[in-house]
Amino acid sequence: MARFPAFSSAGAATPASIFARLREHLARFQASGGGDVIPLQIGDTYLPPAARLDEVTWTEMPPSELYAYGSPNGWAPLVDAIAAKAQRRNGIDAGAGGVQVTCGATHALSCAVAALLDPGDELILMTPYWPLIRGIALGRNVVPVEVPYGDAAALARAITPRTAGIYYATPNNPDGAMLDAGALAAVVDLAVQRDLWIFADEVYEDYVYDGAHLSAAALPGGAARTVTVFSFAKSFAQAGLRVGYALGPEPVIATIKKLVNHSVYNVPVAMQRAAHAALLADRSAFLDGALARYRAARDRARTRLAAPTTLPPGGAYLWLDLRPWSPDGDCMSLLERFAARGVLIAPGNAFGSTHGAFARLCFTGVPPDRLDEGIDRINAVLAG
Ligand SMILES: Cc1ncc(COP(=O)(O)O)c(C=O)c1O
Fold first, then answer.
1. What are the two backbone dihedrals, phi and then psi, of residue 213, each rounded to the nearest 5 degrees?
2. How far is CA 165 from CA 58, 112, 120, 126, 233, in A?
3. What does the alpha-carbon distance between residue 330 and residue 180 come to, in Å, rounded to a whole number?
4. Does 85 lie in the same domain as 202?
5. Hey, which end of the chain has fewer CB within 10 Å, N or C?
6. Could you tell me if the CB of 130 is within 6 A of ligand 1?
7. How many domains does the chain have?
8. pLDDT value, residue 50
9. Shared domain check, 311 and 273
C-alpha cells in the first residue's frame, strides 16, 4: 500500500507540546519589554544537583568505558547501586536482572508500554495524570481510559476485556495526591483478579510532605505484575542528564531492555556515572535540605495564591481550581492573560478531559522570591 505523504496513525495521534499557545503570548510580553519570565509551568527545580558533572572524577574511568558503547542494560555499578537502593528504600527485591537504566522515566514508561501492551489495548490512567503517559499510549495506538485518581470502585467498573494495564503516579503529577496502603492493595487485587499489568510511576518518591511513600511492587502479589519507574531528574535535580530506571520482574525487564537497545542503544555512560555519584552521596546533604525547601515553598505558595487549591501531600505542584474564573469550563484564556504578564502555568486539559478549568503551578522550579513574584502577577489577573 502506498504511504507517502501520509504519516502513521500513531505519529499523527501523538499530541504536540501543551504550551504552544501560551508561548505566543509570552513572546508578545517579551517583545513589549515587559520584563523577565517566571516559568511555573514546568516540573523542575532551581536547586543545584546532588552531584555535578564537574565534581565527578572522570580520570578514574578508562576512556574505553567512558567513550565506547555501554551495556544496553545500564552501567554495571549503577545497576548494582539501584538494585541495593530498591531493596533498602522501596522494599522491592529487584536484583540486577530486575533493573533497566533508561533516558529518564519518560523513556522507561515508553519502553514498558511498548513491551507489555498491544495496539488496541486499553490503559487505565488514574486522572488527573502526567500528560506524557497519554501521548506514550497514543503513540503506540494504545487507548487511554480515564478513571478518577484513587477511586477503586470506578477502577473496577472501567475494566473491560480490552484493558491490559493500569497507570498511576504516587505522589501524583499534577495534584500531589498519593495512594496509601489500602488504595495500593486495591489496585494490586484488581490487577491480580483481572490479569493486568501495573505501571507505577514513582518519580516523586522523595517529594513527600505528609504521609509515607509506598510501592505496589512491595505488596503481596504486586511484584510479579508491576513495572516501577524512578528518575534522577526529580530525586537528585539532574533532569538534563536524562537518567531514570525501571524495576520489574526479570522477563519484563529483559523485554524492556530489547526496546532500550533498539531505541537509544545505551544511556550515555558519563550521565550514568553522574547519577551514580548522586545515588551514593549522603542523602541528608541533598534530599533532606531539598525537601525542607520544597515544603516551605508549597506552604508559602498556597497561602499567597488567590485561587483555591488543595494542600498536596507530595509532589512539586499546586493544582489550581480556576472554575470561579472560567465560566465556560476552560481556563485557557486566563492562562493566556497570565502569560501576557510573563508567568506561565500548565493548562489542566493536558491532565485529563474534565480538568479544563484547572491549572498546574510548579512550586519547586524557581527560588522563593521569584515564586512570590509569579503568584502576585497571577493574583493581579484574578483580581482584575
Ligand atoms: C509523574 C512523572 N512521571 C515521569 C516523568 C518523567 O521523568 P524524566 O524527566 O525522568 O523523564 C515526570 C516528569 O516531570 C513526571 O512528572
1. -80, 130
2. 42, 11, 12, 11, 25
3. 31
4. yes
5. N
6. yes
7. 2
8. 92
9. no
Looking at ligand 1, which atom is closest to the CA of residue 106? 11
117 and 221 both lie in a single domain: yes
Q: Report d(CA 384, CA 380) in Å as an integer.
A: 6
Q: Which pLDDT belongs to residue 308? A: 97
Q: From ligand 1's centre to the CA of 199, what distance in Å?
A: 13
d(C-alpha 256, C-alpha 150), whole Å: 27
Q: Residue 119 CB: number of other CB atoms within 10 A?
A: 10
Quote the pLDDT of residue 97.
95
- Output the pTM of the full model: 0.97
Q: Which atom of ligand 1 is closest in space to residue 231's alpha carbon?
A: 10
Helices (H), the chain: 9-13, 20-31, 63-66, 76-85, 104-116, 131-138, 152-158, 181-194, 232-235, 250-261, 269-280, 283, 289-304, 332-340, 368-383
pLDDT at 72 (0 to 100): 96
Buried/exposed code over 321-345 (b: 16+ C-beta within 10 A; e: otherwise)? bbeebbeeeebbebbbbbbbbbbbb
Task: Note down the domain range covering 120.
Answer: 59-280
List average pLDDT for each run of 10 residues in the chain, which is 384 residues long: 88 83 73 84 93 89 91 97 96 94 98 98 98 96 98 98 98 98 98 98 97 97 97 96 98 98 97 95 84 97 97 98 96 94 95 97 97 98 94
Tell me which amino acid residue 78 is. L
- Give the three-class secondary structure for 354: coil
